[in-house]
Design brief:
This protein is of the alpha/beta class. The chain has helices at residues 52-63, 66-98, 105-114, 120-131, 146-170, 174-182, 187-197, 199-214, 218-224, 234-243, 247-270, 335-342, 370-380, 389-392, 410-423, 440-455, 467-473, 491-497; strands at residues 3-5, 11-13, 15-20, 23-28, 296-306, 309-320, 323-328, 356-359, 428-432, 459-463, 476-481, 484-486. The termini are far apart.
């Protein structure tokens, strides 16, 4: 290595010999920074860091160097491209795994998690052999190129992004997936909604992947060769300067790498704050309040079996226009299962799921704000009228459009879920204990909406343990016991009416 001394402490590395399998390649180095490449040396010749003022001065020359920014851009292009590629393929596979019941998923999960600690040198060797002249990918001519480095980094970070994203998507509750199913959301939009619900975990996966990619040395050094002006990146530059005792340069380049990583991490985190599906204001109220067309639905032999236990046994029910049906029974009698079966959430579709709006016993919210939640049906269902502020006024939520749904009380969540069901404009309304957490005034308002829905020609089927509520609303009552309908004059029905059993 040749060193040429100019005025002051102005040094220039003229060349460095880099070794690969074909021999020695001499590459020129462009670095020439004032007060940068001259560390004080101890008696043994080892490198040491400058005095603080000189270190700061040389740092200024680093960040203003065009050569440095060339390396920075190459670093971002390499690591960023690898992260994008790995994220794309990882998300596709993670979505498939999260929505299937493949028996060997857990075995695959163990393998993926084991690959979190995949040694970079192993990846480097494999990619090097694959890209060499006798390798399976020799025709690509990617050895000692940016493309080869991207390939190595992609393979290295893919298991990490896959594992973290997979876990995040699996944590999207089945209740939220049920909401998407009842709304008959198209597969493409359902994928986006699931990713939206799991976005924090996905962002963390991307950050972890990018962090490992940009900090990688071994694989990129083996595949890229650390060629100046072609494949040199920040990490390999740090290794180079450290190897020749230039500790000032190594530390300053490390600082640049750290700042760069922090900036990218900040930018990725900001993506979590973007409202992709709406904002905190209500849309125009375009609800169709006209009467429904006459209909009559007969559902026969509805059966549900779980783990060898019969929950619903050949149950039949008829749903007619302009009817409110109360479903009553003791706890565990099959009320909720029957409602879910009609909505197409238990086994095969009952055949009327596209005509059904469903309010579950436990309110499940999907979006970030009240306004976004109320507009969800309009956003995911083509041709559906927009439900705006006037719908929110029904339950006193008109001033809470920007409020985050996670901060709502249990009663407010229950009211919002009911309003979301009304916004779907379906002719059959399925309600499971829909007023269990509401105060008297809220119950009165919602029950009035149920009666208005009936006047429009809709049909309401609701499960309740409240005998008085059934008497106020129902035009007909169905009693269920151990998954079967029982006669209203039976002993079981009489006990339910008397309030002995609470279901």
């Amino acid at each position: 290595m040749g060193l040429v001394q100019g005025s002051g402490f102005d040094f220039c590395f003229e060349s460095i010999l880099l070794c690969n399998r074909d021999g020695f390649l001499e590459r020129n180095i462009i670095w020439n920074f004032r007060h940068f490449w001259a560390p004080h040396r101890c008696a043994t010749g080892c490198g040491s860091v400058r005095q603080p003022q000189r270190f700061v001065s040389s740092g200024y020359n680093v960040v203003t160097s065009s050569s440095l920014w060339d390396v920075v851009v190459r670093t971002l292009v390499t690591s960023g491209t690898a992260t994008l590629l790995a994220t794309f393929f990882a998300l596709v596979i993670a979505l498939l795994l999260a929505n299937t019941n493949w028996r060997r998923k857990e075995m695959l999960r163990i393998v993926v998690q084991a690959l979190y600690g995949l040694p970079p040198v192993v990846v480097g060797v494999v990619v090097y052999l694959a890209l060499s002249k006798d390798g399976v990918l020799a025709d690509l001519n990617w050895l000692f190129t940016i493309e080869g480095m991207i390939l190595a980094q992609t393979l290295l970070i893919f298991p990490l992004i896959l594992g973290v994203a997979w876990g995040a998507l699996e944590r999207v509750s089945e209740d939220k997936r049920d909401v998407f199913r009842v709304m008959n959301v198209k597969k493409s939009k359902r994928v986006l909604l699931e990713m939206y619900c799991a976005r924090r975990g996905i962002v963390n996966a991307v950050l972890l992947g990018f962090g490992r990619a940009i900090a990688e040395v071994g694989a990129v050094l083996m595949v890229g060769g650390n060629i100046a002006g072609k494949t040199r990146v920040l990490t390999t530059s740090v290794v180079l300067e450290t190897s020749v005792g230039e500790m000032d340069a190594a530390l300053q380049l490390g600082g640049v790498l750290l700042v760069l990583s922090l900036i990218v991490a900040l930018c990725i985190q900001l993506l979590q704050r973007i409202h992709f599906f709406g904002r905190g204001h209500f849309g125009e109220d375009e609800r169709d309040l006209s009467s429904f067309e006459p209909f009559n639905v007969k559902l026969e032999n509805l059966c549900v079996e779980k783990d060898g236990v019969v929950i619903l046994d050949s149950f039949s029910v008829e749903l007619n226009q302009g009817e409110i049906i109360a479903l009553m029974g003791e706890s565990g009698s099959g009320k909720s299962t029957l409602l879910r079966k009609i909505c197409g959430l238990e086994g095969n579709d009952s055949g009327v799921s596209r005509d059904v709006a469903y309010v579950a016993q436990q309110p499940t919210l999907v979006m970030d704000t009240v306004a976004m939640e109320l507009q969800l049906p309009f956003m995911v269902q083509d041709g559906l009228p927009n439900a705006g502020k006037r719908l929110a006024e029904i339950c006193g939520l008109e001033e809470k459009g920007k409020q985050r749904t996670e901060s709502l009380s249990g009663g407010e969540k229950q009211r919002l879920v009911f309003l979301r069901a009304l916004a779907m404009n379906r002719k059959i309304l399925i309600l499971d204990e829909f007023t269990s957490e509401l105060d008297g005034l809220s119950i009165e308002k919602i029950e009035q909406e149920v009666l208005d829905f009936k006047q429009r020609g809709g049909c309401v089927l609701f499960a309740t343990h409240n005998v008085l509520q059934a008497e106020r609303l129902a035009t007909r009552t169905i009693f269920i016991h151990q998954g079967k309908e029982v006669d209203s004059d039976s002993e079981v029905a009489q006990q339910i009416k008397s309030g002995k059993w609470i279901g």
